[in-house]
Design goal:
Elements lengths: L2 H28 L3 E11 L2 E9 L7 E4 L2 E3 L2 H17 L6 H4 L5 H13 L4 H16 L2 H7 L13 E3 H5 L3
Antiparallel strand pairs: 1-2, 1-5, 3-4
């Protein structure tokens, strides 16, 4: 892979890994939102876009508050920010907020703001809590794990689909 394609792949994969891991944590805690896979697709010769497929909660009605987005409960919205958390830590950024304004995180930011509004949460208060949480993650062993992540076994996987078993094997 050339350097630009390589960097883009790593950034998008780490971003989606953040969503996957946070869904995995939620699944372990409340047995909802089991992550199924990370799917990466090529946009053009040098860039990717990705998503995490999860099994959504089915025991409560979904709320539609943003075009194309469905919310079940507030736990499911927490996972939207972890893509930017992981990506920003990987890129050694001081804040995750820059990611929310880039192509990788725009929808995540809109999704989270819509959810906060739906649940009458104060965005200023949430931002303080999230920034504190981001800073703790940035100064934890997670930062070293992401910086030293071995991408070797993920680059050439057919169709760029990484399923649950692939992703948790080295936990």
């Amino acid at each position: 892979m050339n350097n630009s394609k390589d960097d883009n792949f790593k950034r998008v994969f780490i971003h989606e890994l953040g969503h996957f891991v946070s869904n995995w944590i939620i699944f372990e805690l409340i047995s909802q939102y089991k992550p199924h896979s990370i799917v990466l697709n090529t946009k053009d010769e040098n860039s990717f876009w990705g998503k995490v497929d999860i099994k959504n909660r089915t025991d409560m009605p979904a709320k539609r508050y943003f075009p194309g987005a469905v919310l079940y409960d507030f736990e499911s919205t927490i996972t939207t920010l972890y893509g930017c958390f992981f990506q920003s830590i990987f890129e050694e950024k001081d804040s995750f907020k820059e990611c929310l304004n880039c192509i990788d995180g725009q929808m995540d930011g809109a999704f989270f703001c819509g959810a906060a509004k739906t649940y009458n949460k104060n965005l200023v208060d949430l931002e303080i809590i999230l920034t504190e949480h981001y800073n703790k993650l940035s100064n934890s062993s997670l930062a070293d794990m992401l910086k030293n992540f071995d991408f070797t076994s993920y680059y050439l996987k057919a169709e760029h689909i990484y399923d649950y078993d692939d992703l948790i094997k080295d936990q």
